[in-house]
């Protein structure tokens, strides 16, 4: 939250100083590199699966993920780490400690933000609220309206991270709760249309916050047979400015990110890395100096 | 010094807005978390007291099973099924009675909902998690006697050892229904029966569509797993028997 304040302040002062006509052209003369790391649907899987597990023998584990994240941060300090929801529920750690460990460990790994999955309501909205002091990362959701709940003001629709002079805008989207989560758990949380709120959030991030990269953390699910159900693939196609959708909910193990053409015929990446902390997703973005611009070529290596 | 850093950042941000950098390359990869990675010590250290406590609680013996308890040791009723259904009956009855003043007539659970055996020897809370990893709760459904007959037809058609308690179903040699009774009495189509079951089945799991005819649904909010743990803590020995509650005549 402090980080967010800092960014808000610097953006304000830069606008102010802009009147003075300051010019320092040096920053766009070198390449920039931002690494985005992501998980989804970790479901309280803190320890690796047992060696005897028939599906995921000896895979996963937060201590190993921490080592990997640290190594990547040493390679590139300009790294952001996100989660796409369903942090809670799946091992006795959640039943025993109510999500305390999950949030504390994510803080230890220096997660920057996460969106809220349906299972994050499993101990009720009170259960989620209780664990918030353990989260040194921001919860993001632009389509859950918590105004009439005790989470009011504690979840932001989006956040901006200024990394190496690049503004990374991140917004969150959650799945429809009715029919999926007991109403006594989500209480008066309102679910708003994810496509509409996505368009609003990305427009603000692009036009008002001047973001160079826009990421959506979504717990909508990768895609569904029923075309009317909101999904990441359909969401990506309906946006204008979003560059990357980091998805969750459907526990989809994608071999590589799916490339979707958006409304402006621009390519958007949709990614999801299965579940239970078995994989870490990594997307590296490189920016060239403006003067080296050669047409519209973004090289995509997936 | 701090101000200087802020100043540089501001200058840089500003310049970038005037002359934005151009996205040139995107690389995506997926990294598997496996044993090639070392464990980050501070995570292990942090975790230790929690995992020790968890393992202590999960692995301390609550009860003792003199023999293996399995859902595969009988044709239409099994040791594991009978144990689970009987626990659901004995543990739900007083709760339901105190909340509504009514009695549970019988229990229906699903054979597929029992996810593990209980091995011979000590029984712990960890075993309850293995048997019942899901978060399903005990739900009580009020059904008209006519709908209870549909429930019995379902059991006859399913040909599976779906666990029951408080009810007897006898099949002929060819698998057709011979008789069905609840608390020792024939099913009365005109009366209402109260059935304790799993929230999973009430919401349509295992195609138990007769629950759609529910007159009323009472949610106990009691997780089936917690019910097992509580029961294991109360008794010394688990010694369920195969009996004649659901049988096919030879």
Number of domains of chain A: 1
Low-pLDDT residue intervals, each spanning 5 or more residues of chain B = 1-13
Determine the strand fraction of chain B and express it as a percent band: 25-35%
Q: Report the span from N to C terminus of chain B.
A: 91 Å
Class based on secondary structure composition and strand pairing of chain A: alpha/beta
Note poorly predicted spans of chain A: 1-26
Distance between the termini of chain A: 33 Å
Given the C-alpha coordinates, what overall shape of chain B results? globular
The main sheet of chain B comes to: 5 strands, mixed
CATH class of chain B: Alpha Beta
Strand-helix topology:
The complex is a heterodimer of chains A (302) and B (250).
Chain A: H1 2-18, E1 32-39, H2 62-75, E2 79-83, H3 92-97, H4 100-108, E3 113-115, H5 124-131, E4 138-140, E5 144-145, E6 158-163, E7 166-173, H6 183-186, E8 190-191, H7 194-208, E9 213-218, H8 232-238, E10 244-246, E11 258-261, E12 267-271, E13 279-288, E14 299-301
Parallel strand pairs in A: 1-2, 2-3, 3-4, 7-9, 9-10, 10-12
Antiparallel strand pairs in A: 1-13, 5-8, 6-7, 11-12
Chain B: H1 2-18, E1 22-32, H2 41-59, E2 61-65, H3 79-100, E3 106-108, E4 121-124, H4 125-131, E5 137-144, H5 145-158, E6 164-165, E7 167-171, E8 177-182, E9 185-186, E10 192-198, H6 199-202, E11 216-223, H7 224-234, E12 246-248
Parallel strand pairs in B: 3-10, 7-12
Antiparallel strand pairs in B: 2-4, 3-6, 5-10, 5-11, 7-8, 8-9
